[in-house]
Amino acid sequence: MSRAGGGWNRGRMLAAGEAGQEPAAPCCPEGGDRVKNAEEKSDMSIAALVGSDQLTQDGDDDELLLSVSAFIEKEVGSDLKSLKKLGKLIEKMTEDKIKLEEQVLTISSEIPKRIQSALKDAEESKQVLNQFLEQEAPLFSSITSHLLTAQPWMDDLGAMITQIEEIEQHLTYLKWVSQIEELSDNIQQYLMTNNVPEAASILVTMTELDIKLQESSCTHLLSFVRATVKFWHKILKDKLTSDFEEILAQLHWPFITHTQSQAVGINWPAGAPEIYGTLETLFCQLLKLQASDELLTEQKQLPEKYSLPECPSVILPIQIMLTPLQKRFKYHFRGSRQTNVISKPEWYLAQVLMWIGSHAHFLDEKIQPILDKAGCAVNARLEFSRGLVMLILEKLASDIPCLLYDDNLFCHLVDEVLLFERELHSVHGYPSTFASCMHILSEETCFQRWLTVERKFALQKMDSMLSSEAVWVSQYKDITDVDEMKVPDCAEVFMTLLLVITDRYKNLPTAPRKLQFLELQKDLVDDFRIRLTQVMKEETRAPLDFRYCAILNAVNYISTVLADWADNVFFLQLQQAALEVFAENNALSKLQLGQLASMESSVFDDMINLLERLKLDMLTRQVDHVFREVKDAAKLYKKERWLSLPSQCEQAVMSLSSSACPLLLTLRDRLLQLEQQLCFSLFRVFWQMLVEKLDMYIYQEIILANHFNEGGAAQLQFDMTRNLFPLFSHYCKRPENYFKHVKEACIILNLNIGSALLLKDVLQSASEHLSATAALNEVGIYKLAQQDVEILLNLRTNWPNTGK
């Protein structure tokens, strides 16, 4: 009824909308039959109309019909009472239609007016444009005529401007010359009145002008300025240097011994405050000459092959303070004096360290405050040290080529230089960013020779070390707390050798040089591993002997130490440097680069993997050897008559099977022996590997190979739980958890008859794996599979006779 009513409503509304007429008001109930007939006819006619429209209209009309139907459905719905709304709804729709028609008429009447207005505006624009075009022709002609008339004037004016610019340049040139001459005259006047500080200040101004003119193309002007600066700089420098050296002499500079430097601090010379005041004045005046000194003096540089870092020259007053020490150094260590011995580099290295130490207090207490007061960001002691270190670098650069191919002399030189560097950095705080001896040792020829010598002496050390029997004994064997890893002396010495090499190269200035030394260390580790493998192969017939165990402990120790080193900050930095080098050279796959970058791998991974493989191989040999001995000792136990042993109730006290004694004694002796000879971590791996094999052997070769009566099953359980398992209780809390097969097999064999029958029934009737697993778990079976349990149940002979 509701659907019919809804259809009638939609049809009626649609017909009314299309015809533009108001539908009749709903009839009263008394005329229901006639109304119903009229409704049916109306529905049929409307449906016919709509059908014919759908045949002729396109998709948009279909959407319109759907939207109209939806609108009527929303407003009227399926309730007949709501048909009362149709009248008002049609009135509203009619009003809306009239409004829309009025809007359409209004718009259609306005459009022609707008078009006419636009056409009018276009016509006016066209007229204005034509006027402009008419004015353009005479104007263009007038401009052209004017330009032709003015061209001679322009040419004359251009020539005059060029002359003016040239005159201005000349005037500027003369102004510069005049300014320089004026400054020069001022310096002369100040010097004549002995006003050196003002003369130095004027020289600073002149030096600034020289620097400003560097980009000028006036070569003669540049030469004039430079010559003037040089002239006055030399005069002022000579005068101030002479006065400064005189003051230093009154202070007994330089302090050749440490005692002398202390004496200056304790016993000041007469008139000390006045002397130090003059010292400060002269020092500050010399500082003013620093800019001109750098401009005029070409800094002495070592060849580029040494790749020294760029540093400004030592400040002028410190240079003057260094002069007497430089003379002494050259006199003793660069000439034909007996102190200049190429085989004694420690002489000049120690001398420089002594000079730095003996002058440090004076520089910190007297010179540094002057620099701070003058606003000079220089550390007096480091500046002084830098000047002395340059003497060392020049000396090394000249001496190294002479002893490059004498291994002993070269090695001695490197050792002394490294000791010097260590004290220079640690004691005197010399920064790693300054030029140092490591830059000289990093020069290609010298560095390759250094690598060769390091390799040679390391290999010699390894040869001599492994030729002695004592190297397999730990030097801490009598100290239990220290000797936890039972490290043989050879492994300890070898890792100390690697550590010393690390200390020697860790202060190298560049990462590529450090990486080359790292490769040397890895080569030495590999070489030592090969040597240990060779010695091990000689001992394979007796893998439980002391030497074999010592080799295994050595391999384990080296692997452990390398793994610790991999987390060291120094080696992590090398790993990052290696990552950058490999990425540049495409030397590794993306996976390997990713592992290095994410720290999943380390620089020692290849070595550690090889050592771990060797360790596992040696442990496996030991386990196999002990296992063979245990199997030989278990032959009688395998043949035990498990089928005919008396039950537990027939025995007063359960005791160990006599046939199991050789097995347990062999096992006990070997465990004690290897516990004493192997370090804790290795022994733990050993006994766990052995237990795994022993568990499977007893399960497969003894249990599955026999049938058990009640007494046999009880005896087996007693042998295992009260004798075999306790052998390992010293090494773990629950040893039975390592004998899962044996433990669970004993549980199955010793189940009471009722539980065994019930379990057998459940396993045979279980349709799902889960129910069988639950049943097994209930009796304590977690490792064995269902089929294994069924086999074990069938090994029992004490089943009741059911007549089946």
From TrEMBL:
A cellular component annotation (GO) from this entry: Dsl1/NZR complex
Coiled coil found in the keyword field: yes
Entries under Pfam families matching the protein: RINT1_TIP1
The keyword Coiled coil belongs to this UniProt entry's keyword annotation: yes
Keyword terms of this UniProt record: Coiled coil
Membrane-crossing residue ranges in chain numbering: none
Annotated GO biological process: endoplasmic reticulum to Golgi vesicle-mediated transport; mitotic G2 DNA damage checkpoint signaling; regulation of ER to Golgi vesicle-mediated transport; retrograde vesicle-mediated transport, Golgi to endoplasmic reticulum
Superkingdom, taxonomy of origin: Eukaryota
Coiled-coil regions listed: 83-135
InterPro entries linked: EXOC6PINT-1/Sec15/Tip20_C_dom2, RINT1_Tip20
PANTHER family: RAD50-INTERACTING PROTEIN 1, RAD50-INTERACTING PROTEIN 1 RINT-1
Similarity comment: family membership: Belongs to the RINT1 family.
Protein name (Swiss-Prot/TrEMBL): RAD50-interacting protein 1
Protein species of origin: Cricetulus griseus
Species lineage: Eukaryota, Metazoa, Chordata, Craniata, Vertebrata
